[in-house]
Amino acid sequence: MVSKVTKVVNSQGFHMRPATVFVGEMAKFQSDINLVCEGKTVNAKSLMNIIASAIKCGMEVEVTADGPDEEAALAKAVEMIDNGLGED
Amino acid sequence: MLKGIAASEGIGIGKVVTIRQQKVTYEQRQVADPDGETERLHDAIEQFKERTEALAQEMEKSVNPKEAEIIRGHMVMLSDPFMVSQMDDMIKNDSICAEAAAETVLDMFKMMFASAEDELTQQRATDVEDIKTRLLKILLGIEEADLKTLPAGTVLVVNDLTPSMTAELNRDNIAAIVTESGGLTSHSAILSRALEIPAVLSVLNATVTLKDSSTVIVDGSNGEVINDPAVSQVEEYEARRDEYLKEKEMLKSFIGRETLTLDGAKKEVFCNIGNPKDGIQAKERDGEGVGLFRTEFLFMDRDSMPDEQEQYEAYKKVCDTLEGKTIIIRTLDVGGDKEIPYMNLVKEENPFLGFRAVRYCLQNEEQYKLQLRALIRANNDTTGNLWIMVPMVTTVGEMKAVRAMVSDLAEEMDMKMPKVGTMIETPAAFVIADVLAKYCDFFSIGTNDLTQYIMACDRGNSNVAYLYKAYDPAVLRAIRRIIESGIDAGIPVGMCGEAAADPLLIPMLISFGLEEFSVSPTSVLKTRSEIARWSKAEADRITDDVMALETAGEVYDYLMKNVAK
Predict the structure, then answer these.
(1) What's the average model confidence in pLDDT over B454-467?
(2) Residue B178, phi then psi, degrees to nearest 5
(3) Do B116 and A12 touch (CB under 8 A)?
(4) CATH number for the domain including A41?
(5) B83 touching A, CB under 8 A?
(6) List of residues 6+ apart from B158 with CB closer than 8 A
(7) The complex's ipTM?
(8) Which one from B187, B271, B319, B440 is the annotated catalytic residue?
(9) How far is A17 from chain B (nearest CA, A)?
(10) Does domain B257-562 have CATH number 3.20.20.60?
(11) Per residue in B263-286, pLDDT tens?
């Protein structure tokens, strides 16, 4: 398993639109991917669970990935979060 | 009369059609063939997606693409494989029917969303409820109420306007919408505004009180619903509706136009905004720039200071949204009346005269530098023309100190120096405006605080609120003096208080020489149209008369008689 801590920078956080884009990308990986935020662990491939977690701008998030393509999955997830989840 | 939330402007008069979303009921069954039941669930989900896509396509045509996205979101939500597998597991493990499995899981998410701390997530609970009701109807073979065939002049009364209902509405036939739930930022509100249908929301017991086919008046501008109105009332409101529609058409003709006085002098109408999202509204409402971006939102409702990067993103976003336009950003204006726990501000006896705004920032230099660095970077990295505005200045020393900080930081970062100016809102700043102008690249008059400080009255205190009037000769003289000082020094002068959007004061502001009027996004077109009514000569005539008057009352009466339309 690999993991990295990063921070949500886009103003809306993990809301509907950014979360949809994020989940769509995560679904392409075989690894199990999770977001750990304020003690809660959330499945990064589940839109509903991500929205329910209400992860907001400025919060620290640990991304973990476990599986055959874990390195690539982690890199992609962190890249997307750092780039503001495609929010315009 | 019934009161509710004024969610979408305009007046609608028509006959009530109540749509009661009855609770979808079913008997929970044990199933003998869980695999068959799972298949039934998946078929229903597929059908849900097909219908939703069809609705979304209709909505793109009838409303607009942005609103259609709300309803496409429902498809995405119900496509969550982990949520669906939870439903599958329940059917398999507990042998319960598809309806019960779907309802249990969706209710769980609804609860989770509703109990979240932020409003946006809470609103998603309404979406989950909408998804649940429609999915259950598909499973049970219940037909949706047909909203397409509602007759012309319908006042639609519903418990809650769901996105799926909105997609089916024929807007030409709907005079107004009344709901029992929903706030200003709910789907019901957003959708009715997008459809330009007057709407009053959260009217208690509306579906019971308002009787089918009775006539009602819905005033979406004031949040009022008049049940069984008298003939004279109907006539009165018809006249007001026609007036409103005429005004709306007239204002539309000002979209995309330059702001010009009657004799062709160029002015600018900017917007006051409170967060980066408002920037989008400023653009949509045709603002020519941002005259006041309050940055407090970044600092409030959280446990720690936003870092430089987060601030930078927010400032950059507004500059990007309003490409190439002037964006005036006010640095942190905190004080004893706004609570920000991590800043350790003590409660003060007299917060408006206390440790606030630039006074606080200059005592907390490191913290202030973070904001200034973020502003310098945002200005450097965008085509935006970002100006830094310092609030609550009372002395030249404060202005010099901030300028020195900005200039040192810009040099250190090897970036261009943004314009730095002040918000003139204290009596001291007005009295020394001619001196302050030497250290400012621009002035912006904050009439709300300026009025309060000049009149020495707390506008929140009802015993003295009568003194709080921008029409007072004292305030008008101050405004004139500030604008003249700016003009003499050759720096631009704007105004970002409520007075800038007051049609009664606009001729005087033109006469004084104000260049930039910063107003709320919804007032841009109105302000532009008011400016277009006046030539300099005519405005000067009004000003000469007004400046000879002695009291706020006299000024107001004169303006009502000679300026109001």
Answers:
(1) 87
(2) -125, 130
(3) no
(4) 3.30.1340.10
(5) yes
(6) B18, B19, B20, B21, B165, B177, B178, B179, B180, B207
(7) 0.90
(8) B187
(9) 8
(10) yes
(11) 999 999 999 998 888 888 899 889
- Quote the tokens at residue B422: 């002040």
Catalytic residue among A10, A15, A34, A37: A15
CA distance B171 to B55: 15
pLDDT in tens, A18-71: 888 899 899 999 999 999 998 889 999 999 999 999 888 888 999 999 999 999
Extract the runs of DSSP E, i.e. beta strands, from B287-406: 289-294, 326-330, 385-390
Judging by beta carbons within 10 Å of its beta carbon (0-12, 13-18, 19+), is residue B32 exposed, middle or buried? Answer: exposed
Contact A2, A72 (CB under 8 A): no
Torsion over CA of B165, B167, B169 and B175, rounded to 10 degrees? 90
Which of A9, A15, A43 is nearest residue B120 as measured by Cβ atoms? A15
Smallest Cα distance from A53 to chain B, Å: 8
Q: Does the pLDDT value for residue B461 go beyond 70?
A: yes
Range of the domain at A37: 2-86
Nearest-CA distance B217 → chain A (Å): 36
Q: What CATH number does the domain located at B154-251 have? A: 3.50.30.10
Closest residue to A48, CB basis, from B109, B302, B317? B109
Domain residue limits, chain B: 25-140, 154-251, 257-562
Q: Using a CB-CB distance cutoff of 8 angstroms, which residues of chain B are in contact with residue A54?
A: 116-118, 121
Check whether domain B25-140 has CATH 1.10.274.10, yes or no: yes
In chain A, the number of structural domains is 1
